[in-house]
Sequence to fold (231 residues):
Amino acid sequence: MKSRNLTYKVRIKDIPKDERPRERLIKHGPSSLSNAELLSIIMGTGNKKENALLLSTRLLTNYTLRELSEITIGELKGISGIKNAKACRILAAVEIGKRIVSHKDSKRSINSPEDIADMLMPEMRRLRKECLKGIHLDSKCGIIKEEVLSIGGLSTNTIFPREVFRTSIIHSAAAIILVHNHPSGDPEPSEEDIEFTRRIAEAGRLIGIELLDHIIIGDGRYVSMKERGII
Fold:
């Protein structure tokens, strides 16, 4: 009689109760769980061959957490065992994490270009497209609001001062700091960056809202237009 190669899928409920991710989270808190265990709770279920924990472990073997923060739904669905529902859960969790990180206390003060770099570099250094952000400040340099002003290359022909200062005017901001990233990783300003900065600074002087700085984020480095004497 020929032997058969039998496979057996270990289900989460087959794991001893005290070792299951959900029960461990309830008992010990989320900080006690590994990345794979946390991800398995987000996904909820596995597939025909793997339980949620094994699927999560395989996913994190191929992607770092930083890479997962930038992954698309198409890329997720291209992974064996992940379909629409799981892909949507993962992306929703990633987006919640991004929003928590980007949510700033309006009373937080900005005292230097380094403060801005520390705040935004983790989020912006790996972006695949240029993103221009505005940090609107009160008279004591406290953050009133942070917003995305545009996505794509800076251009004096496509990004107008009225769009840059609209939120500052609505919230009676005293000043604004602009921040954008260079996907190349090199934060050195281009001629267009410099021209755009000078145009916005002049517009701000006319309406009484100071452009305090324009910071360019690279991969682990940044350039302050203020420190360069461009503003």
